Structure formats: structure tokens, C-alpha cells
Amino acid sequence: MAVEAAKFFDHVDAFMDYRKTIYNATEQTLKSNRIDLTLFQRFISNQHYRGIDGPATMAFQYHLKNDRDNVGGSINRKIFTLRSYSHFLRLMDVPQADQLPFYDVLKIRQGYRNRPNALTKYQITSLFENIDRSTILGIRDYAVYALMYQTGLRIGEVHALNLESLDLENRNVTVIGKGNKRRQLHLTKEMCQILSEYLAVRPFFLNSHGIPALFISKKGNRLALRTMEDNFKKILSKAKFHTHFNVSCHTLRHSFASHLNDNDVDILVIQSLLGHSSTKSTEPYIHPSLEKIREAMEKLPGVIHMKKLLKEGVLNLKFQNNRRKRE
Prior knowledge:
15 helices; hpI Integrase, Chain A; mainly alpha; 327 residues
């Protein structure tokens, strides 16, 4: 027998608390877990499934693939959330929890359909030029997004930073990444200056002396993930460029890795900076820019030879012959 659909979702809050307290899951991870479970709950309700079984799970996969156009990695993550939740239900001795099908679902072995998109250096410049640094909030936001771009931090990692995470004297920042992995990143002189400017105005924020968070909201709380995302969208709307892809705070991390790759930084170095456990996780982040591809094409022997012939006048090429006028 399958677990009744109505009872399956009764323990979501307890699951979130367990993940946060025992496993120290980050807010971003908890947010993703809740979104996945809410999406599954909505699907089960809309399709009028009475129980959580194999057919319901496969139908959910079809829904993600065909209706939501999710890639393999995204579908795998949602199934992994359901698998973790079903394991929690087993520990809670929920009847029939041991018969939940999520452990039987095979992982989709496909890469990213499209490699992550990155902004050009011109677009990055335009983005930061549209942050009003004449205000206290503008100085804070400039520091937030500069830190994401210049160090490749995830939005959740910036959110979790405390004052003690910074060591401007030695020009480094200590970051707690996924899985509570700690890494120390170097800060450029420019980044130290940006952070120094923010620290100079931080005392003007409400509750600045009573909160350890590095970045504070205007209400005196740790700057929320949602606020960082919303503020970024407002800044992006002012920037004078358009992209064919959706730009988010995470795009700054992709851009950081892509620009390092354009400057021939070793992938192992980029892996370390991004906080990845293997280069397989790093590879999707790095891809050559169009400028880099053009440079490579210009170095092809055939292209060099053709350019030489054109320069010497040996070849006189036209796109097409002049059309003859009709009589």
C-alpha cells in the first residue's frame, strides 16, 4: 500500500527543522527543499492522486520534463529532496513509508542542456554603474554584489557572512559553503576598499551593534536572500543591456568563473575558489566567451593564410556579384 497523499505532507515542517538543526542545512537549501515539496504537493493535488506510489512519481517526472521543461539535473534534485523526505518519514515510523518509491527512481544521466550563461565585462561594468553609491543602502548593495562577482560567492554564502568572517588587514574572507565546508578567499585591494566604505556606514543601520551579520537590512536584521534578489532585479532593470537569458545573482558567480577562464586561470584554481569538491562540478561554470572564441578562430592557419592573400591583393572577394538589370 502507498502512503496516503493527505498524510504524506503532514511532516514537512518537522523535516525542515530536522534538516536545519541536525544537518545545519543552509537557508538556501531549506528554501529549495520546501519549493520541491510544495511543487510535488501541488501536482499530487491537481492530479487527484490518493496515494504516493510509483505511477504518481513517474507522472511527476513526466510533468517536470514535458510541462515545466526541466533539465535532468533539476529533476534529479527534486527527486533527491523527495528521497530525503521519505527517509525522514521512515525514521518517524510513518505507516507504509518504507514502500515509498523514490529510492527506485534512477538518476537521469544527462548533462546541462545549456551551459550557464555569463555576463560580458561590459555588462558587468554597466550593472555596477547603475548602483547609486550616494546612499547608505547603495553602498551596502554595491559591496554585496561586488563580493559575489569578485570572489564567486553564492548568494547564501554572502547571506551567512558575519563581521568576524572578514580580515581586511590580511585581505581575506572566510566562507562557509555547502556541507559546512570552510574556505578562505583572497580579497583584492579594490574589494577591501569597497568593504571598508560599507563598514564605515554600517553603524548607521538599525541594530548594527547587536547583530553579528556583515550585511544588515534597513530594519536591523540580517539581509535576507529575497531582498538581495529583489534589489538585484531593480538594479538590472536600470542597466542598459539586454540578454537572451535570465540574469540573477547567481549569474555573477558564473561570470566570475567564466572571466577567470578567459584569463587562462587553471581549472583547479577555479574549483578551489568556487568551493567545489571536484572539477566535474566546476566544468559547467566555465566556458569561453565569444571574444575568446573569435581570438582562437583568428589563429587558425587557414584564416591567417586567407588574410595574407587578401592583404596582398591576390584575392578580391565579394559577397555576391552585381545583379543584372532586367530588360
